[in-house]
Amino acid sequence: MTAGETKHPGLNLGSTDAQAHEAAGSALFGFWAFLMSDAVIFALLFATYGVMLPATAGGPTPASEYKIGPTFLETLVLLTSSLTYGLASIAMKHGAAQASIQTWLGLTLALGLLFLGLELHDFAGMIAHGATPMRSGFLSAFFALVPLHGLHVLAGSLWIVVMMAQLRIIGLDARVKINLLRLGLFWHFLDIIWIAIFSTVYLPGLIP
Amino acid sequence: MSAPLLPALLGRFRWDALPFVRAWENPNANELIAAGAGALVVAGALFMVVLITRLGRWRWLWTEWLTSLDHKKIGIMYIVIALVMLARALIEANLMRLQQAVAIGNPGLVAPEHFAELFSTHGSIMIFFMAMPFLTGLINYLVPLQIGARDVAYPLLNAIGLWLTAAGAGLMMAPLVIGRFSTGGWSGYPPFTEIGFNPGVGPDYWIWAITLGSIASTLAGINIAVTIYKMRCPGMTLMRMPLFAWTSLCTAILMIFAMPPLTVATALLALDRYLDFHFFTNALGGNMMHYANLFWMFGHPEVYIVILPAFGIYSEVVSTFSSKELYGYNSLVIATMAIAVLSFTVWLHHFFTMGQSPSLNAVFGIATMAIGVPTGVKIYNWIWTMFRGEVRFTTPMCYALAFMMTFVLGGLTGIILAFPPLDYIVHNTLFLVAHFHNMLISGTLYGLLAAYTFWFPKAFGFRLDERWGKISCACWVIGFYLAFMPLYVLGAAGMARRTPAVMETAYRPWLYAAEVGALVLFCGFVALLVQLWVSLRNRAATRVFAGDPWDGRALEWSIAAPPPEYNFARLPQVDQRHWFFDAKRKGAPYAPPARYEDIQMPKNSAVAPIIGIASTAAGFALVWHMWWLAILGVLAVVATVITRSFARDTHRLIPASAVERMERTWLDAVARARPIPREMETTPANAGLAEVHP
Ligand code: HEM
Ligand SMILES: [Cu+2]
Questions:
Q1: Measured from the CB, is residue B433 less than 6 Å from ligand 1?
Q2: pLDDT value of position A5
Q3: CA contacts within 13 A on the Cβ side of B81
Q4: B332: Cβ below 6 Å to ligand 1?
Q5: How many Å apart are CA B306 and CA B504, to the nearest integer?
């Protein structure tokens, strides 16, 4: 097989780093399989949310708790972080200077953390006026689904930190490249999940 | 009631969490049985520690086994876990049968909660810590050999899966010594497992043991699927794979998609219990039906996760011991795939009685019956494979034949249960218990034992004793019919499952028969141990180093027994389904490569044991509310993973000269071995070289 052949869905390293490209074939394939099973987890939590939506038990309802402004801002921040991650991947593919990869990664990290901060602020607001997960089945389902996405973003941020350290200490060897590709898949996956959250949790909740 | 001891450090531990203390304070039969079981676990663990120390084998254990990333050793360790857990679950099954046999019109030996713990551990262990590790171990061992690979796709992930399984198994053993187990059955239905009904440690043990097992199986599924998709040797197209590799692939896909629902179910139950969420509670909008849905979205595909590999095993066994090509390979592959897909469409048949609309029940009932079709296809395939073949009644073949009879019977009662009006009558009775044991014992356990007997010579280099193998097989078969056919009668007569005591004296003869059957089944296990012992003693006479004792077809028979660490000195290059079988007929199956090369293999790693121990500690701490230890355990796992990601020196080379030396020794043995005709394959003359019949 020639290195130019596409071996995996994702950013193609064939023409610039044949060795990493070769290994990425099975490394990325397995990560896709992992993402599929992670997607099943989210799918079931979405279904759970759908089942529990009417179970407000006389407590807070979606309309009383969700706010369009902050969630829209969170959406913008997270989507932008996907863009900056994409730029980091392109910089890596084309052998750009380490500094530029680090910058894009750092920017992605900052946006990720900003997203988490905004989200935590939202949750704190909800909890402050009694919309806690202990209050009703609906809120339990909300607080299982949305913060799980947040936990994923936290894990992704930690992963970015680790990759930045590896770039500095080890440099761009084949394994670092493959892990950057995997991290990219993970980060974009979180984006997709968020879009689903925004459009099936927040938006319908706001339309009375 | 004693007070909590040092709550900051030991959480909710109290002295009466120890069964020994409870038995001391209240020495009745129930507590003494519990204390006896606890003592057995402690004594067993101590015995192992002393034995290993006396033999001076700790270092050997650590470097050769516990830290090994060799897929073959990982496979064997999985199976060791499964056999230990099988022993425990069988003892519990016997205790339950004994209880029901004596508790006719009186309370019997064990208290109702204790009985509930028994069926909960028995079921959970048999499914998650017997069947799953056993089949994962077999797949691990066999699939890379069958597809001509030197290793799996992710050796370290593989070891982590093993250690998470071991951690889960550890959490299943712990409540025998500290605390109690869940009373909610293997399915852990709320409200039995909710904090309101059972605030004790039992359901928490169940939750964390199952969660660890479920994560481990997800990882195993990913690893197996990627191995099969990406690591096949040149020429090994999917449709040239042996059928066991196919069923392994379908099993792996099922694991990837079906384990997450279980993880979600147990995680949400944990949120209910630990953080006062309201998913499945009675109050504040909780919905316990939702748990049933989540659980069985896993539970039904799980049935096929444990049965499909056995279908693959029977395919190999029947074809080998009939000396015929598998009849209808393509239809078997299609049937396997069809079963895998359909298995996601029938979960609701586990709760027909819960009050949804009749038309919904009808849809799921029909879907359930539809699965019978591809399964029936397979039975015909195996029968046609035997037709006009040279059938030899070796032990694995006996299991396969017993399976074909028994499984069809269980399938018929399955069709009865798939019919909602009939299911309403026998739901939650012993009829169901009889049905699923009918499927699981013949469909899973017989298959696993057949595989154990069939491939044992490959893994250890000597054959197992035939006579004891047959005795064991006879016990498993006769015991099964004695133990479970009466349950069909009892179930149809209305005896509910999970009943600790029986008031209807008319049940007595059937319960006695079932009790005798359980004893015979236990004898089957003892016969397995005797077989192992006898075979070990005679191993000098039964060696099959040449590697092909049964005139095998697939690639695993084309190498030495036991195989070298690197499996294949040169990756095979196949051009058809039965490449090795055909090469034997054409003359040069063992041609050495022109030139030996260095082979790269993964180095041992302590990462997996560390993760296993840390997650056992975290799970145990969560059960007992020792928050400091839980946090420490989780942090240790994260830190280990991060540290490992910096490691670069993770491989070592086996030099070409060493490969050549090992291959030469083996090829010399092959050249010296006398080809053995089929009639003599179970005699000491068999040194692992089958005579070739054209
Ligand atoms: C081989 C001898 C076996 C015997 C004598 C045996 C006996 C029993 C008994 C007495 C029960 C309780 C029935 C009741 O609820 O009244 C039970 C339940 C169960 N058994 Fe077995 N069993 C055996 C093997 C197996 C195997 C091989 C599996 C699975 C691979 C298995 C899986 C289960 C499950 C899932 C339950 C249900 C537990 C629950 O109610 O939550 N058993 N068994
Ligand atoms: Cu089912």
A1: yes
A2: 62
A3: 34
A4: no
A5: 35
